[in-house]
Amino acid sequence: MIIDIHNHIVAGRDLPAYQASLLNSRGFHGRGNPGVTEEAIKRAKWHGHSHIEVLDQVGTDIAFVSPRPYTMMHSEKPEKIVHWYCEAVNDAIALTVKVAPRRFQGIAGLPQCAGVSPKETCAELERCVKELGFIGIMVNPDPGEGDGQTPPMGDEHWYPLYAKMVELDVPGLVHSASCKNPRESFHGHFITEESIAVLSLVNSRVFEDFPKLKLIICHGGGSVPYQVGRWRSQLRGPNDTENFDERLRRLYFDTALYNTESLELLFKIVGPDRCLFGTERPGAGSKADPRTGRWYDDIRPMIEAISWLSAEQKENIFHKNAARIFSRFRPPS
Question: pTM of the prediction?
Fold first, then answer.
């Protein structure tokens, strides 16, 4: 079985139209109707292909579907439009799962708002898990989208969310969203903020205070493993009994790295037992490499070709780690 934990929703034109109406009116005319139906989900295409066709092209059996992060408008005001849009996206993900429950599972977006406590996201988190049957959540480490006002993820600011995640036993995909800094694209912002999140968490008490917390850092952990030597020198606290690598292994990582060398470094440094197959396909890497003709985000063949990984380790990466970490996931019978 191949489980891709890092997929984003393919929902057609209704969600973007709804988002535009909320941004244009700033909620003056009320919540409105997103208009997303089961039929719209079935008709939705990505570059001319349905989501299931995209999965079939690369042999993915099950995709864990989350919102498209850069559209989540966490830094917009008023806060109510962020909540309304997030709820609409989560409802659309629920319809995606309903239409094809053997191929999709839901990862909830959170209505995170710049300068607001993560506690305010817990009601939507509970709704998605208890009512919609979602198995995990996506967490934006920078809901201000470049404003620099949100503490990094090792700060107690995040503790209300961590407590609710542990209570419900849901993992969090740490995935940055949009960015309003004109000197940085949102693609670059992904790597910046996910790297900041890793270093902050490693240098914090989060896992002492929440030993059952499960966080998965997207895009291979930002600058991990490429900068790991420099990061090892930055571990704070002379009385810390663990080294950087030991603390790093309290986190999990996806495999959305589009070259074999980086994948190998990730597996060697954090271990295959901490890595989950994730491609972000369809997404930013869904382009053909002009040198080879292969899609950058067709990662499965790269992992399968790493000769020093055992068959068991590859099985762990491709599906067993996901089944273990996402405890609410039930494989289709």
Answer: 0.94
Question: What is the reported pLDDT for 190?
Answer: 80
pLDDT tens-place string over residues 5-49? 999 999 888 999 999 999 998 988 888 888 899 999 999 998 888
Model confidence band, residue 181 (pLDDT cutoffs 50, 70, 90): confident
Q: Provide the angle, in degrees to the nearest 10, between the axes of the packed helices 79-99 and 14-25.
A: 170
Token pair of 80 as six digits:
């109510």
On the question of a cis peptide bond just before residue 16, with omega within 30 degrees of 0, the verdict is: no
> Of 61, 71, 162, which Cα lies nearest the Cα of 109?
71
Using CB atoms within 10 A of its CB, is residue 169 exposed (0-12), middle (13-18) or buried (19+)? middle
Most distant CA atoms of the chain, gap in Å: 59
Using CA atoms, how far apart are residues 58 and 76, in angstroms rounded to an integer?
36
Which residues lie below 8 Å from residue 268, measured CB to CB, with a gap of 6+?
225
Residue 123 reports pLDDT greater than 70:
yes
Bridge-based pairing of strands 275-276 and 3-8 is: unpaired
- Phi and psi at residue 66, in whole multiples of 5°? -125, 170
Residue 121 covered by a domain:
yes
Residue 63 near residue 4, CB atoms below 8 Å: yes
With beta carbons less than 8 A apart as the criterion, state whether 153 and 201 touch.
yes
Q: Where are the alpha helices (DSSP H) in 174-299?
A: 186-202, 206-209, 228-232, 244-248, 260-270
For the chain, what is the domain count?
Answer: 1
Residue type, 150: T
**Any domain includes 331:** no
Q: Dump strand ranges (E) for 50-208.
A: 62-66, 104-108, 136-139, 172-174
Residue 332 domain-assigned (yes or no): no
What CA–CA distance (Å, rounded) separates 261 from 103? 30
Residue 220 belongs to a domain with what CATH number? Answer: 3.20.20.140
Residue whose C-alpha is closest to residue 154's, from 171, 141, 143: 141
Placement of tokens 């079985």 in the chain: 1
